[in-house]
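To: structure subgroup
Subject: Chain for Friday's discussion

All,

I'm putting the inputs and outputs inline so they're searchable in the archive.
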Amino acid sequence: MKMKYRHQQYQHRLLFLLVALATSADAYISIVTGANGFVGRHVVYALLQNHYSDPNYQVSSEPTIICLVRPEKVQYEQSFWNAHGDEFQQSRTDDKSICVKVMPYDMLDNGETLNDAMEAAIKGRSLTLSASACPICIYHIASVFGPTPDPILTAKGNVQSSEDVIRTLDKFYDRHPNSKLRVVLTSSMAAVRATDQPPLNGKFYTHRDWNTLSELNENNWGSCYQWSKAESERRALELVRECNDRYAKDDNDGTGREITMIALCPSFVFGPPCPIPVEMREDATDTTTATGGSSSYSLTLIGQWIRGNSPVQSRLCADVRDVAKAHLVAGTMTNLPRSDADRRYILSSEVRLSSEATAEALLRGVVRAQEKRGIPCIDIDVSKISFDKQFTGGAISIGMRETDASERLKEDLGIVFRSVEETMQDTAEALLNTF
């Protein structure tokens, strides 16, 4: 009886979500920071694909999606998304196209370039929309990951960028009080727990766990990064609450201003690169084709694994395609959880796959790609693929449930994540096709 009720509840939520997406489609403006990164690219691709496949979407000549990238990347990225738009256009029965605009972004300019993008998004538009609409959604994905000369300064920069997003939205409301603003913050599993930090319930990590152990350490960039993700999410949430409390007290004009924020906490993100548009493939280098034109540590890592340059490791994983879909839904969903604490989702498999099982999945991907090509790849010797035999897990052993994610993702977002095996196979095959 309980299972039947839960199934009916899930169907009701999914139907409500689909109706909401259809009725508010013309109100949906997306601004994506870090849009040329591994996750950012997939998020923009998912947004574009969704708009072109939705017959109810009201196309505007004004930007529907704004991609924020480093200044030197603007020209290439504009060509990239123009080409993808042309490909998606072929699937429509009309001649309308989705406007994607690429603009320069500096995550440490106190929100100046983000503000420019928001003003560009509403130019020529009316924001007198229904209360349920969410006209502008900021997908804040930009963040620095990896070793730098000053990891502490880098970590503080990550935090500042998240704070600046909320402050920029607050100032935007002063000028445009009738707008509806949302932030989808790309956080991390690093914000949920530190290395070896035990879960609050003593069993597995949930969305109520927070990293309380990572510290700033000039000799440990990994700890600095983990600290920055937890602190970025904390500070963003604190500022959102401060703003909303002030709006509630000062709501004399009845605009009902509110910044809604949803935090997404993916584990280690793997998956195939975002497709390169057909017309740009001839000019793409092998590296560009392999990475989809974006920098990705996970793609580099898998490339090393399937070449046998380093042993395959056990990782708690999330598929980038599922992560992108979660961003899409989080940006448009109207049936939000009531509490801020529940507007936080772990994006991950629930069990860490062993390094041996991961290696086997990669091997299947290599074999599948070679069978499709009809010839082996001269750069790959499958006998060299090995796996780590030392690591047994952090606070939770490999093979044991590590996160509470699947049920909430299915019930609230309508998403079922791919298996880690499928992710690894698809990634290996995609990379092999570029060698």
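Points worth raising on Friday:
Residues 70 and 423 are 29 Å apart (CA to CA).
The beta strands are 29-33, 65-69, 100-104, 136-140, 181-186, 259-266, 268-270, 317-319, 344-347.

D.
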